[in-house]
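Justification of computing resources. Each target in the renewal requires a structure prediction run like the one illustrated here; the chain below, 97 residues long, is used simply to show the kind of job we budget for.
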Amino acid sequence: MEEWGIRSKVTCLVTDGAPNMIACGKELQLRHAVCIAHALSLVVKKGLGLTPLMSAIRTKARKLVGHFRSITTAKVINIIFIFVYMFNIKGNFYLFH
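Resulting structure tokens:
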């Protein structure tokens, strides 16, 4: 940090909670904080994996997204048409009328 002249500009090192990052903060003699967004993301990911229902929903969603990524735009529009008319969905589908 001295090489780049930023020692006085850095007040805190924000990282994930990995031991190597904590050690880095100590080595640099900086105040260290764990990123709350990263910690929250880990909690949510772990929570979603623990619930069988959520795991099943994630698996189905992953398959659905994979399917749509593999087809052309024309096929997607066709599928939307089928979905709208099969379920008689009312709404602002000006594109389809």
